[in-house]
User: What shape does this take?
Amino acid sequence: MLATIYDLLNTLLPYQWMDHNFMKNAFLAVLMVTPLFGLLGTMVVSNRMAFFSDSLGHGAFTGIAIGVLLGGVQPLLSIVLFSVVFAMIITYIKSKSSASTDTIIGVFSSTAIAVGLMMMSYGGGFGKFSSYLIGDLLSISPMELATLLAVFLLVVVVWMLMFNKLLIISINTSLAASRGINTLLIEMIFAALLAVVVAISIQWVGLLIINSMLVLPAAAARNITNNVKQYHVISVVFALFSGITGLIASYYCNTATGATVVLVSAILFFITLVLKSRMAR
Amino acid sequence: MLRKFLHHTNLKQEDQCSKLCCTKIEGFGVTIGKTEIFKDVNLHIHCGELTALIGPNGAGKSTLLKSILGEVNHTGKLNYFDAKGEHTGNPVIGYVPQYLNFDLSTPTSVMDLFMSCLTNRPAWFCSSKKLRARVLESLKRVKAEHLIDRRIGALSGGELQRVLLALALDPVPDLLLLDEPVSGVDQNGLELFYEIVSDLRESNDLAIILISHDLRLVAKHADRVVLLNKTVVCNGSPEVVFNDEETRKVFGMLVTPVDKGAK
Assistant: This one.
């Protein structure tokens, strides 16, 4: 199965950077992860959840620490579980409390990172965790690609089913409630979905930049689009483009892949920002 | 005409609702934290009737609408009876908020807004021709069909309000709740809005509750006026309410459209 795909990639893209298997794996991962970021990012930006998604990275960090303490070598399950619970608690408290959203997220986010750091630094062994801060897309294994495919399909299906409700909520929650939408439930599902994607990809993308991958393509697309269809298509295209360009550039420049991808997205963002002000004139 | 006649008989015997659909609001009260917003609100809303809700700032008007929507926890019961007098549980409610607080830069068109409200097919898919025709039809009702492909953030206050009204009318609700904006809509836009609402009441047999700040337009269009100030202070035809001692106390000099001789 995987050998066929490798052969296909060799025929389609007979370039030097594609020679190594780790690059092929990374390429496949980029093809799956970046469209997800592009899709989810649209609603993260529309719902003004950039800070929230940032905190998910911190939650995942604590998940890693817990997983390692419990003795797993690949603490994926613990990261996903902890992130989902973390995301749902924030969403729930945010809806019930009168304190401002960014304060609540700030409190949870700092608590999670503090707990995570304490656990990881216990006994002075923080060094082995530092890879989670930066991430390593080139380390992705075929097994992990399969997990990624499952998550990819899950997100696409959920996205088809609940996008419309999410869109109305992003416009106005009162309007959504008057159309019979259970806003808390939908927000919970969205938060959980985001948490899963962030938790799965944090080991390849890294805590420090995962949020930029989520926010930048959508923010760039938002600058130059007028309706939901354009917004989605452009966001996914930007995410894919920066993912692939970033991967190739990182190979030749010998830099961290995630960071290179983010830099490409950031450039796209600034270009669209200029285009937007041109269009407004 | 016959309907009007029936309404008046119904007003006398508040418990009966024969042959007309109606919504009964019984003993509504809302307390948020330790602040009592309003209490003991009992209203009886008939189809084909435009009920204007007036009252000073902070009287609880918007909160009453939100509690009818179920968005705010409240005491009391909401009962809906259809034309056969059968209790049919929750009415379909259409709601036009006072001010739609949304991000003006959102890349969402009027068509997207309708599509996301009316179907399960994701708004980032192509829309079907049938749906587009239906949306155009809805927009035509509020004289806004030219706005279908506009970005919602680029609409003027009056245009947005009409689009939201069109949205609230699809699917046709049993009860329409309108929270009139205090600002952002010019006088012509407001007149047009009242005319559309007035027409709708007659053509669709809707029960409408409208929060209003323009007493002149209320006097012109409303069938019934409810003065709310922590509870229902006064309830009746515009003439009755505007000539009431309590209304004058609340609004002072403002109440001149009916009784020009008021102090």
Q: What stands out?
A: Chain B touches chain A through 37 residues (CB under 8 Å). Chain B is about 35% helix and 25% strand. The first strand of chain B starts at residue 22 and ends at 32.
